[in-house]
Structure prediction request, 322 residues.
Amino acid sequence: MTGALEVRSLSVDLGGVPVVADVSFSLRAGERLGLIGESGSGKSVTALAIMGLLPEGMRAGGRVELAGEDLVSMGERRLSALRGDRIAMVFQEPLTALNPLMRVGRQVAEVLRIHRGLGRRGAAERALGLLGRVELDDPAGVARAYPHELSGGQRQRVMLAMAVACSPRVLVADEPTTALDVVVQDQVLSLVQRLADEEGSSLLLISHDLAVVARMCERVLVMYGGRLVEEGPTRDILSQPHHPYTAGLVATAAAVSSPSGARRPGSLPALPGSVPPLGRFPSGCVFRDRCWRADRSCEAVPQLCGRDHAVACWHPVGEGAG
Ligand SMILES: Nc1ncnc2c1ncn2[C@@H]1O[C@H](COP(=O)(O)OP(=O)(O)O)[C@@H](O)[C@H]1O
Ligand SMILES: [Mg+2]
Prediction:
């Protein structure tokens, strides 16, 4: 069975420097899939490549199949027709995605006019309904406002209303709550989950925050250096990470969330060092210069191996492993 979205050997190149390399995964129908990794790991570039929205100078290779059509090789016309309709994205900072000069009600209505061919009246009515569904207190007031007149949380709800307006098969949310304060974060995450569920959309949820993905997603992809280093059911990834990188992320998150800030005895080491800039990742395993298990064998690129829970590592951590 094919998934809602099939990503096959996706790569992104910037002037000969790989930003994303050999990324393959399936987003199953109705699934909520997380994509985690530290800042600078290539998560946003992966999302933009999927949407056909890469910045100047970046080029995508490989395939991204949506209902049998390849988005990577598709022309801009067809892509524009699918974007906002069959596949939609929510960004971290809605201010950059919303038009600053247009009232938000009209922006939501535009999506319906373009993709559903609704007239001005009908689109405006549906837009108001959508603004109500994203739990905005005063939908009519918000519809008349310009983006800068709204709070961050309100803007993110407006973006969500636009994203789900056409019941997309796939919803990509890139750090949708990172810019919001904790209470609003919780509300918006619940809203994302409810809307994806109601619209029957599969969700690809990107976050650097393990707790967010743990709460929302059944399955997780772990990215580092533009590559997928581990993939599996969320529970397994959290309780038995196989990649030293994932183990480091889990240990770091545990240290942050425990009241004393102390690591549990016998727990894995937290992540040493930091993410290098583009073009400075080592050859072979991209993580080997930060890895406590690395040796000569890590000079070769490890492939993602395993069925349900897969890892790309020559010396995986955990039971029965190296
Ligand atoms: N427009 C751009 N021009 C040049 N480099 C970029 C651009 N956008 C992202 N990058 C670089 O690509 C790498 C991956 O970035 P990104 O996908 O944004 O990471 P993440 O979303 O995981 O934090 C980083 O090294 C980042 O600096
Ligand atoms: Mg990002």
Q: What stands out?
A: The radius of gyration is 20 Å.
